[in-house]
Specification:
CATH architecture of the largest domain: Sandwich
Radius of gyration: 33 Å
Number of domains: 2
Distance between the termini: 121 Å
CATH class of the largest domain: Mainly Beta
Length: 215
């Protein structure tokens, strides 16, 4: 027959909870937000705050899983000691997945693709227009004088920061292959984005000469 003391100890072990907290960060020491923290035995979880801090209720001998997009999963074993609180910082390693290039073609089979290439007729008029447009763009870029205002510089810096965050652990964005960027560029060309502005320096010099002549 099992003594009453042993039964009471067993009940205490099952009902004893440990508050586990700490900081989740990457290999550079930057805190990571929205990292999933899951308790295996209690089957509940939480996420890290904006500062990378997490706090979760666990039990002795439990296993905690840490997972986030772009990082390898981490596992932490909670000690079996009867403690009330445990503070553990966790570092997640980058998980970079290299994806091969994918080419999407509007043909169902390779035979249809070959037949389309054989039957393709080059339109000389469209080719000439394309070459003329490319030459106009090249000349406009070579002869344009642009002015960068503080507002434009700030927007550019914020856009670069946003692109760096969105492409973390990925290849950087190439706007030469972005149709939306080309559409924005052509729209700017029509609105005079690269049009030369008249110089104000010559006007000021003429005005000063006129004042001197009058005096």
């Amino acid at each position: 027959m099992v003594p009453a003391v042993s039964i009471e100890c067993q009940i205490i072990d099952q009902d004893h909870y440990i508050q586990v907290d700490g900081l989740v960060f990457d290999k550079s020491g930057n805190p990571l937000a929205n990292v999933n923290v899951i308790s295996f035995k209690l089957m509940h979880g939480t996420v890290t705050e904006r500062t990378g801090v997490y706090s979760i209720t666990s039990i002795p001998g439990d296993t905690l899983f840490f997972s986030a997009i772009g990082f390898k999963k981490a596992v932490m074993q909670v000690p079996s000691e009867m403690i009330d609180r445990l503070t553990v910082d966790v570092m997640l390693e980058d998980d970079t997945i290299m994806i091969e290039d994918v080419v999407i073609l509007p043909w169902k089979t390779y035979d249809e693709f070959k037949q389309a290439v054989i039957n393709y007729e080059v339109n000389s008029t469209e080719t000439q227009r394309m070459n003329i447009n490319i030459e106009l763009i090249r000349r406009s870029i070579n002869t344009a004088t642009t002015r960068i205002s503080p507002e434009a510089g700030y927007r550019y810096a914020m856009q670069q920061n946003f692109n760096a965050l969105m492409t973390k652990n990925q290849f950087p964005v190439n706007n030469l292959l972005n149709p939306f960027a080309w559409s924005k560029f052509f729209k700017g060309m029509k609105n005079g984005l690269l049009r030369n502005e008249p110089s104000t320096t010559k006007k000021k010099i003429k005005a000063n000469k006129n004042k001197t002549a009058r005096n």
